Amino acid sequence: MIVLILSGVIVLALAGCGCVVWAARGGPRWVRAVATVTLAAGELVRRSQRASRTSNSTQDSGD
Asked: Where are the domains of the chain?
């Protein structure tokens, strides 16, 4: 079951990356929408990782 869920996530990520490339080359409107969602999701992940790193470093420096 977990393998199916992870496979689905990987397929969605690859499809999103493909849409980003296609949109950069001037794809249809729906491709640009999917690319925008994919880039926004990537930015959210990046910000959450930065926030996690920042909170870890402030906790470590308190010792």
From this structure: 20-51
